[in-house]
Amino acid sequence: VLRPAGQHADPEVRATVARTGALADGTCALLEDPWPLVRRAAARGLPGGAPCLAAAVTAKDTKLALAAIARAGRSGRADLRRPRRTVAGDARGAMPLRIEAVIALGRLGDLEPAERILKTHHAKGGIVPLADAAVRALAADGSPKGLPLLRQALSAPAAKVQVIAAEALGVPLPPT
Question: Model-level pTM?
Answer without folding.
Answer: 0.72
